[in-house]
Amino acid sequence: PRQVVAWPFPHDDDSVSPNITKRMSRAYHDLCPRAFMSKATAMLRHHSDSAQFTDGSPPSLCNKKNSGHVAPHVASAADDKRMASTLLRSANLARPSIQNRLPRSNHHDPSSYPRFENLSEIGTARNTIERSAWQTPRVRRMKRNGVAFVPRLSSGSHSKTVLITGGAGFIGTNVAHHLLSTGNAVIIFDNLSRPGTADNLRWLRDEHGARLEHVDADVRDAAVLRRAVARVSRIYHFAAQVAVTSSLIAPREDFEINAGGTLNLLEAIRTCDDPPVLLFTSTNKVYGRCEDLALERCGERYQACDEALRRNGVDETRGLDFCSPYGCSKGAADQYVLDYAHTFGLPATVFRMSCIYGPHQHGNEDQGWVAHFLRRALAGESVTIYGDGCQVRDILFADDLVRAMMLAHQHIERCAGQAFNIGGGPANTISLLELLHQIRDLTGVRMEIELRPWRAADQRFYVSDAGKFRATTGWQPQIGIRQGIARLWAWLQTQTGSASLDAALPRAVAASGPAL
């Protein structure tokens, strides 16, 4: 069976409650052969004399930040005795499963499995299993990468079911289409609040039918989210408030969705017996406005004065500098995901993404500027640009991003607990003015431009250095700017007359420019 990762104790929501009887009752009713080692022994270690269980244990079994075990919360001697008795009964119910997980030399005829007579014997069995698991090649790689994981064998349930929060959005639709096309069942968790999401969901249903399930809900609803998480083995977390401009208008809502919704998801994952693999999409805005970068204007674009930065782009060693409410909320979520990976051993990784474009992108004045410009050209509309139009981004086509996400899942033992800058890189950079020229060359449309002052949190220059992810997985972009823009233009032409396109193209005299 495949291996997944487990977290160091304590991992249960109730582990901080002083009500031991309630906790033990819950553990007794929840325990099954598959879950015993992840729940019962964690609670056993949490509440018992830890010294008898730590001898010879793998180093990851301690919380890195606490470097030790939480002291037991024992209200009385009677509660302590009741706790021990409950765990012992549960251990013996699960005894055949536990015995089968010991190294081959310790296997016995099932009819002659010895009963656990005391808590110390349970601890010995647990340590034997963990030490054995720690020696597998996959776990040794995780240990070298500094991720405090304790692997365990999965039951294999839900192995092909994937949850995508925000799955009816632009990126979610492309990821869902790929997963459904390769035989996976997909649950899309999306409240369809953004223009175009209903069209995307309808298209996915027409293409894939019954393997697609839609949960119409918001990531701020922790109970509904928890039920969805319990059914899957993999999660792509895209649900978010995505625009800097919107965060400036409603910062509290921005925080509740981006930071609060992500914390709801992490807590739901933390309570699973087999934690699903998580990929979270963060943003280059966690690096701030990058005002310290020395730039020079070259024609219709800015470029870095530093040769190494111009050649490679911004890597992950750059310090975080959250800017704008959007940058703060996404940055907080970014750091929560990484911390939960290290503190609780969740198999989670973070993509700090630059500008993504491609089919099913219903870009507007707040987000999705490449698609926004093309839509305006298709409708014969003018565009408003904030700044001088020479600001530069690296752009990445959606198909290349989907490949990167699949590779991150395949290499989760090396990616877990790490953040990666993801974008088109120096080979796929473009300024706003250069994009307008490409649109003119492609479509024959010369768009009128109105320039307005720079806005808060705008970056003049940002280019991703994806070298860390390339070294980890072998990934690199394959679709260049001209090819990608042509493919997006072709898709947009098939959408002419749709309700989502009309909604994205208001016939305003002065349209707002894109958020970059």
Mean pLDDT: 77
| Strand content bin | 5-15%
In DSSP terms, counting alpha (H) and pi (I) runs of 4 or more, how many helices? 21
Determine the N-to-C terminus distance. Answer: 45 Å
Indicate the percent of residues in helices: 40-55%
Q: Decide which structural class fits the backbone.
A: alpha/beta
Read across the widest sheet, the strand sequence of neighbours is 5-4-3-6-7-10-14
Shape: globular
| Spans where pLDDT lies below 50 across 5 or more residues | 1-77, 101-113, 132-144, 146-157, 498-516
Radius of gyration: 26 Å
Major sheet characteristics: 7 strands, parallel
Number of strands: 17
Describe this structure in words.
With 516 residues, the protein is an alpha/beta fold. Helix content is 44%, strand content 14%. The chain contains 21 helices and 17 strands. The protein has helices spanning 20-30, 36-47, 51-54, 77-93, 95-100, 119-134, 137-144, 170-181, 197-208, 222-229, 244-249, 251-270, 307-312, 324-343, 369-379, 398-410, 412-415, 432-443, 467-473, 481-494, 499-504; strands at residues 3-6, 150-153, 161-165, 185-189, 212-215, 234-237, 277-283, 295-298, 301-304, 348-353, 355-357, 383-386, 392-397, 419-422, 429-431, 449-452, 461-462. The chain has a 7-stranded parallel sheet with strand order 5-4-3-6-7-10-14, with helices on both faces. Strands 11, 13, 15 and 17 form a 4-stranded mixed sheet that branches. Strands 1-2 form a two-stranded antiparallel sheet. Strand 4 (185-189), helix 9 (197-208) and strand 5 (212-215) form a beta-alpha-beta unit. The chain is globular, with a radius of gyration of 26 Å. 47% of the residues are buried. Residues 1-77, 101-113, 132-144, 146-157 and 498-516 have low confidence and may be disordered.
